[in-house]
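3.2 Worked example (two chains)
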Amino acid sequence: MTADDQLTDRLVKLVAIVLGLKAAGLLVLAASAAFRPVPGRGLTVALILAAGMAAVIVGLLQSRRWAWPLAITVLIADAMIVGGLLRLLIDVGLALVLFQPPVRARFGLR
């Protein structure tokens, strides 16, 4: 395994870890519905985004071709629907990592 392959592995794992943390946060939000009122739409959106992030994590770690476009879609949805400046900055940072040429090449994209 070359140094570029190792760097690409690390970048993909970094994206997977951050998405995992974001998904865990969304699940905590959904679980908090047991203790405080959460609008039905907010609960549904949190669960759908968490499920999408979980699917992306599995796909990224297995280097599936479908995982890259799904990751971009989930990041855009997360930034637009959930909102917040910090969340937007994290999503943009993850997208920049995913757009790196070696990472795109790993998923069969030019």
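3.2.1 Second chain
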Amino acid sequence: MNKNTSIKTVKLIRQIGPVVDWREKKKKQLVKAVLALKSTEEAESFLRDLLTESEIEEFANRLEAASLLYKDLQYNAITEGTGLSSTTIARIAKWLNGTLGGYRLVLARLSNNSLHHDNSSKLGKGLSLSS
């Protein structure tokens, strides 16, 4: 550790890993590209062009693991359901509970969206119309 590195920075890096420099032109372009998507179909097309099939599967599994961790499921159940290693699940748990809050933000928004979309068929007290 040099004299320019703050203890707070060291603690953050230990907690979440090295910080990504989002100011880099390529990374700014990636973020802008994601924000430019306007529909599920556009997102599917972009992600399919950008990522391999196995990368899409991996990222989907990571998000599912975060969702299951958020619901307090145990690692072994998550490992069985996603095929992810316990090390990857531990890393996801660290990020889920970390200071940046990316997983928490997305999971909260997904939860809110599903509530808004499902309200039309809700009868109350957890009952819903079957399709």
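3.3 Remarks
Residues 52-114 form one domain.
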